[in-house]
Structure formats: C-alpha cells, structure tokens
Amino acid sequence: MKYLLPSIFVLMLGGCAGEYTFNSNLDSDAINDYFKASDVTVYEGTLQPTGPFEIKGLVEGETCQISENDAPASISEARTLARRAAADKQANGLVIKNCLLIEEASQNCVTRALCVGQAIVTTSRE
After folding, report:
1. Considering the entire predicted model, what is its pTM?
2. The predicted structure's pLDDT at residue 59
3. In sequence order, what are the residues at sequence separation of 6 or more whose Cβ sits closer than 8 angstroms to the Cβ of residue 126?
C-alpha cells in the first residue's frame, strides 16, 4: 500500500502529460490593433519631443455620450482614439494641440470630448 498510492499518483499525472496545443478564437491581428495606441508617445503641455521629428499629419479623437444612460464622454478616451489614429499613420508620437470637453447637449450627443494633435515620427524614443 505504501508504494501503491504514489505509483497510482504518478500514473495519473503521466496521463496529463502530452503535446497539447492551445487554440483560441482570438485573432492576433485584432490584439495588435487594439494595443497599437500604446506604441505612440503622447507629448502634451511642457513635455515636448526632443530632437528632429517628421510630421505625418493631423489626427483627432472624439467620444460622444449618446444618451443619458451611457458613460459620459471623456478626454482620456478621446486622447486614446487620437493615439490610435496616429498609429494608423505609422507615427510613434502625438503632439496634443488641444483637448476639449463639451458638456452642452447637441442633437446627437449629450456630452462630447475631442482631442486634436499632430502625428509625428521621432528618431529617438524617450
């Protein structure tokens, strides 16, 4: 009995060993697309790019609170959308020019947040 229990345990663990593969319904391209905004450095206020850079173009990010029950529009979400737009232009930096939170209800939105900036490519990462 003293040797029987450990040998059964080893056989049970041996049955779990094998070459298993992991299959997922997640698309790796979609994951890369979701996290691409993190590759863009945000320059705002006193933090400005040092060294030479190339301007790729203007980008914007906008969020809208459609109904009273939805989450309010936020500047941070608008900034993230602007970072994603900069990444779409193959930029590695975003110089925020202006962010604005509009709390007056309009025809389409209860509140809106908007960030506008320049997508840039810097030669050195900070």
Report:
1. 0.74
2. 98
3. 41, 49, 50
